[in-house]
Design goal:
This protein is mainly α. About 70% of the residues lie in helices and about 0% in strands.
Length: about 350
């Protein structure tokens, strides 16, 4: 499998869809059924998004390294993909919670709500923490790539990742576990792992790797679920918890990639693609839907099924009539011959 090319991975479409709906279902059980333990499972699905972002963006970032003219194109592509729908959902959430044009609204609007602990008075749109990390990564990392240059590029990226981990260890006692996990300045490492994974997979392939990684993932998941989650507030385990879910995310990514060769049926590919296209809408809209169902005090039958079907329908509409028009006008990355 050639990881250099912009190959479309249908297996990653599936992983992206699982991640989006995984977060949505976990939050439904956490808030609708008042079962906070599901919050921990939702964290794992969000981490999948970070690693996926680094992996998928690798070719574009390498083209930025090869040709500086791609920097502005990269920004336009990312922001046309992420900003319009985010603003729409943020305005809707702000209207529902009577926060439209409040100070917290503008903090969310400019993705600065998690730059500092307790920076917002009312955390009424909590899913935005991951978007803030993504947007700041999009803004800063391409500039770092250009600054590093091609000489010893891999070495410099690894040093950057290690430096982030060192800083997280040094400041582990300074922040709450919540900010330690969601603080914008602490989480570039999650996306960097996906970026480095793409780099190494270019040179490494093993037919037994999917089985090995799947077994390791299950063992790690069982360990962290039973031993780390219960002590997550402990300073000694905050770093291990975050590192553990990153490792699981990385293992899951590589496992899904290695199953790509088994996905040959055209209809299955279309189904995976459909689920993947909805993911961003699902992630941004699902808490709004949960709030509305709680507000009307929904007592009908099969609440999870009703929630899932509504989310599927709304997300499909948002993708085809809101997201897709912006995706069609994105500029193309300039390919380099180098």
């Amino acid at each position: 499998m050639n990881f250099n090319k912009n190959y479309h991975y249908h297996s990653l479409d599936l992983l992206r869809g699982i991640s989006g709906y995984g977060v949505a279902i976990c939050h439904f059980y956490a808030f609708f059924y008042q079962n906070p333990s599901y919050e921990y499972f939702s964290l794992l699905f969000v981490e999948f998004f970070f690693v996926l972002s680094g992996f998928v963006l690798y070719p574009q970032l390498i083209e930025v390294l090869n040709n500086k003219k791609n920097l502005i194109i990269f920004y336009k592509r990312r922001w046309l993909r992420t900003i319009p729908l985010y603003i729409f959902c943020l305005i809707l959430a702000s209207f529902i919670f009577d926060e439209l044009f409040s100070m917290d609204f503008f903090k969310y609007l400019f993705f600065v709500q998690d730059l500092f602990p307790d920076f917002v008075s009312n955390n009424y749109y909590p899913v935005a923490w991951s978007l803030a990390i993504e947007e700041f990564f999009y803004l800063v990392f391409p500039i770092i790539v250009i600054f590093f240059g091609k000489k010893n590029f891999l070495k410099k990226i690894i040093i950057l990742l290690v430096l982030i981990y060192v800083l997280k260890i040094l400041f582990i006692n300074e922040f709450s576990s919540s900010f330690y996990r969601t603080g914008t300045i602490f989480r570039f490492d999650a996306i960097l792992i996906g970026f480095l994974a793409r780099y190494f997979l270019i040179y490494f392939n093993n037919k037994y790797m999917p089985v090995i990684l799947l077994i390791c993932s299950l063992i790690l998941f069982g360990y962290f679920e039973s031993n780390i989650v219960n002590e997550y507030e402990d300073d000694k385990t905050k770093f291990l918890f975050v590192l553990g879910v990153q490792i699981i995310s990385l293992i899951s990514l590589v496992t899904f990639i290695n199953f790509e060769k088994f996905i040959t049926n055209g209809q299955i590919k279309k189904i995976f693609s459909l689920i993947s296209k909805q993911t961003y809408s699902v992630y941004l809209f699902h808490l709004i839907l949960i709030h509305l169902m709680l507000k009307i005090n929904y007592t009908g039958g099969f609440p999870v099924l009703v929630y899932f079907l509504l989310l599927f329908a709304i997300s499909s509409v948002l993708y085809y009539f809101f997201e897709l028009p912006f995706l069609k006008i994105r500029p193309k990355i300039l390919r380099s011959d180098k």
